[in-house]
Amino acid sequence: MAVSPHAGSGRGRSLVPELRARLGGAGYEVLLSESLPTIKAAVLRKDDDPPLRAVAVLGGDGSLSLVANTLPAGTPILPVPLGTENLLARYFGCTAEPAAVVAAVQQGRQRTIDAGTANGKLFLVMATCGFDAEVVRAMHLTRRGHIRRWSYFKPIARAVRSYAYPEVRVVPGGGPTAAAAEGIEGEATGAGAAAGRSDRPLTCRWAMVFNLPMYGGGLRIAPQAIPDDGQLDFVGLRGGGSLSTIQYLSRVYSGRLQRRADGCARRGTSWRWEANVRVPFQLDGDYVGRLPVAIGTLPGRVTLILPPPVS
Predict the structure, then answer these.
(1) Are residues 145 and 55 in the same domain?
(2) Residue 112 lies in a domain
């Protein structure tokens, strides 16, 4: 079990020893660690007798993407949601209840999904730059332990006062191909790769790509995103300022965001985002760095262990 050092609080954190005890009682050998090198070494030396059932990731979306980035492709990963939003776990119906986790290990079904890559780092849900990434950056600079939703109040207020909404250039086809991102010679092929290179460059104030149709706070910015179609769904918003932000939020809640004249939605496999000033970007709710960023798609990169079907 890979445990994020920031995962959970109160009842959530107390689940960790309970989960270990339940899995051990069900006959499984359990390694519990906060060290990704330790987890990776255990996965690499594990033989097939008995086979590895799952790497349970006790944390949020950022922890899941970090573990997926560290472990070999095909490693079975079980989401155990102990983060703030837990978007991927919520989408696939995963819970942290000990009985449900044991059932998933014993009888869970495998689901292969795509991953995105941004400057070599994997993401499973989304990558964004703009106002929301500035909020995530401010949270990153002041974070102390577990984050709750109200923890974002001060970073949001600060961004509303000071964020300048600089222009971002989006170049479709400017990111790595799936083959290059995995260190393989050659180019990604198929209709998705062609679509990723065919669109014209554009400019916007917010740039976002989604692998899942999920966003924090229950927002559905790209409700058409599919996690296993070999592509990412891009949403670009050209408006800047607090008024535009409020209008965008109202249209997200009403399902009319992509009908705005100052927005666009595209589907593709790779992009490059650039800016003339320092613009932050975030992956799965974690601040990563500043533009430029090269974004690509890795079809079928991640194998999840999900709850067994409801009979």
Answers:
(1) no
(2) no
Do 78 and 144 sit in the same domain of this protein? no
Q: Are residues 142 and 274 in the same domain?
A: yes
Contacts of 97 (CB under 8 A, 6+ apart): none
**278-284-286 Cα angle (round to 5):** 50
pLDDT tens-digit profile of 223-235? 999 999 999 999 9
Pick from 294, 297, 289: nearest CA to 271: 294
Residue 33 lies in a domain: yes
Residue 193 above 60 pLDDT? Answer: no
CA distance 66 to 84: 16
What are the two backbone dihedrals, phi and then psi, of residue 111, each rounded to the nearest 5 degrees? -140, 120
Overall pTM > 0.85: yes
pLDDT of 8 reads 54
Question: Measuring CA to CA, which residue among 135, 47, 56, 125 is closest to residue 86?
Answer: 125
Check whether residue 272 and residue 209 sit in a common domain.
Answer: yes
Percent of the chain whose pLDDT exceeds 90: 64
Tell me: the pLDDT tens digits for 258-292?
A: 556 577 899 999 999 999 999 999 999 999 999 99
- In a shared domain, residues 217 and 280: yes
Distance of CA 78 to the CA centre of its chain: 15
Q: Are residues 10 and 92 in the same domain?
A: yes
Tell me the CA end-to-end span of the chain in Å, nearest whole number.
28
